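ok so for the tutorial part 2 we go from a plain amino acid sequence to predicted structure tokens. step 1 is just haveing the sequence, like this:
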Amino acid sequence: MKTSKKVEKMIKVFEENEFNVDLIKEGGVLCAEVETWTAKGVDMIYFLRPFTVKSFEEYVEKFDIDTEIDLHRQGELYREHFHIADSLKDFEEHHAVLKAVLAKLKDAEKPGRKK
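step 2 — the prediction. this is what the tokens look like for a chain of 115 residues:
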């Protein structure tokens, strides 16, 4: 799939930070499924529609640690491997990673940047 330099920069930042990016065209809009893992190995998948820094920023701003813990603790296997304190620390750290990646994306988006 042919992409713009802006999209290529975004993919590069994500991949440099251990995210996988799969581009998808949906209704003529370039979207992406972005996947990564928390430090403790929880698979996190984000669907960005459209695939823009702004879309990722909105996700990061709305990221709710309590909701993530509640969602994941519904699984028996997860509950067997994670105490609530473990979950809290893992998702707090993950949110910090998301914020750091967002800052890198914004920096790469600035005019004249070749990163």
